[in-house]
Write a structure and sequence with these properties.
Oligomer: single chain
Radius of gyration: 20 Å
Shape: globular
Helix content: over 70%
Structural class: mainly alpha
Number of strands: 2
Number of helices: 15
Strand content: under 5%
Distance between the termini: 43 Å
């Protein structure tokens, strides 16, 4: 028996799961202490329910997540509005350092994947499908490189990559908050910024209408920018184009008294998009696909988690300055280093909701996670592919 939910019903369930996560988080100290995002709590519980239905043979709940990409795009467009030229000048060095650090992480993930694959008797390229392909790359890169490796004779590459991407999505969401909390507590770190969202900021319907309109405008114009990039041979995640349009609009407003960009309202809209997207992403996980990495591949999975914990705690934190912003960025690297950039943003949102804002982290992470790391990851994957094909 299969219960099929259409896109509207799926969104409704996603909202309910977000509030279920919020309800449980308010009553379970562990979830509050370690900053587990609300949509992660509710989404994983739903995925576990679906797993129980599937394994018992009762049936499954089929979801229509067609709206998921819309909310993801809405969130990243809101991030684009924070990228003023003044902030870019101020944060350029931090972006460079974080990019270099994440490039090292990508390489180490593939070294572990390929190395352990050879130790347990698997094809080395299957190790890449348990390395940076699904972890830093996520489901999108897994879907692209899986068939590529299978055409090279690597059996079940797609299944392994997708399963590891699912594993990474869950583990990256669960480990970012606890590691950041440990660093913040150990070194008595705190934010030096004013939490704008917590301040008394008058919000009126006209401002929300303007914020909504500007986000939708940038998303629409972004489709033409994406088509232009594709026409000249450059391929980016689709939401990058909307981010760039939003950044142009923000910087234009910075130098124009006649153009208003209501940042508090835009940030609120972005938070809505992030929470709905992540709830839908987690609730749609097919956990039984993780069974495909049982046995030898589970050794690689455990090793990747250990690498991420040690690398973020000792390398990322120190490289980014050993301050509060660095601790927030640690939670983010756990997110997109094991899952995807939206997981990074959710991890940071959960941490800053408890400990205070971090402008630097919210500026640097989307640039590195969405713009630079995909190019680096693809390059490293191809180097390893040519070495071990």
């Amino acid at each position: 028996m299969t219960l099929a939910l259409n896109s509207y019903q799926t969104m409704a369930v996603g909202i309910l799961l977000y509030y279920l996560g919020k309800f449980l988080k308010a009553r379970i100290k562990f979830l509050r202490t370690y900053c587990i995002p609300n949509p992660v709590i509710g989404g994983i519980l739903f995925a576990l329910l679906n797993l129980a239905l599937h394994q018992s043979g009762v049936g499954a709940i089929k979801l229509d997540t067609v709206q998921q990409s819309f909310f993801m795009n809405m969130f990243f467009t809101s991030i684009g509005f924070t990228a003023s030229f003044a902030l870019l000048k101020k944060g350029g060095r931090d972006v460079l350092i974080l990019t270099i650090v994440c490039a090292i992480l990508v390489t180490l993930q593939d070294v572990i994947g390929v190395g352990l694959a050879k130790v347990v008797g698997l094809h080395p390229l299957l190790g890449l499908c348990a390395g940076s392909v699904p972890l830093v790359g996520g489901h999108g890169t897994s879907a692209a490189f899986g068939p590529f490796f299978e055409n090279m004779g690597v059996e079940r590459a797609s299944a392994v990559a997708i399963a590891m991407a699912t594993f990474g999505l869950i583990s990256g969401s669960l480990m970012g908050g606890p590691i950041a909390h440990r660093l913040i507590s150990k070194y008595n770190l705190h934010s030096n910024e004013t939490n704008v969202s917590a301040a008394v900021v008058p919000m009126v319907p006209e401002k929300f209408m303007l914020a909504t309109g500007e986000i939708l405008l940038c998303m629409g114009v972004g489709t033409y920018v994406a088509a232009f990039f594709k026409g000249i041979g450059l391929v980016f995640p689709f939401y990058i184009s909307s981010m760039l349009v939003a950044a142009v609009l923000r910087n234009t407003a910075d130098h124009s008294s006649s153009l208003d960009v209501p940042i508090p309202e835009i940030q609120t809209m972005g938070d809505v998009g992030l929470n709905i997207f992540l709830s839908m992403a987690l609730m749609s996980l097919r956990i039984w696909e993780l069974f495909d990495i049982a046995g030898a591949l589970s050794v690689i999975a455990v090793a990747q988690v250990i690498l991420m914990a040690l690398f973020t705690y000792f390398v990322v934190f120190n490289a980014m300055g050993r301050d509060y912003d660095a601790a927030v960025e640690v939670s983010a690297v756990c997110g997109f280093g094991m899952g995807a950039t939206p997981n990074a943003m959710a991890n940071m949102s959960a941490v800053t909701a408890v400990h205070g804002p971090s402008t630097r982290a919210f500026f640097c992470v989307p640039l590195v996670g969405a713009l630079f790391i995909d190019f680096i990851n693809s390059s490293v994957i191809m180097v390893f592919t040519n070495l071990f094909k």
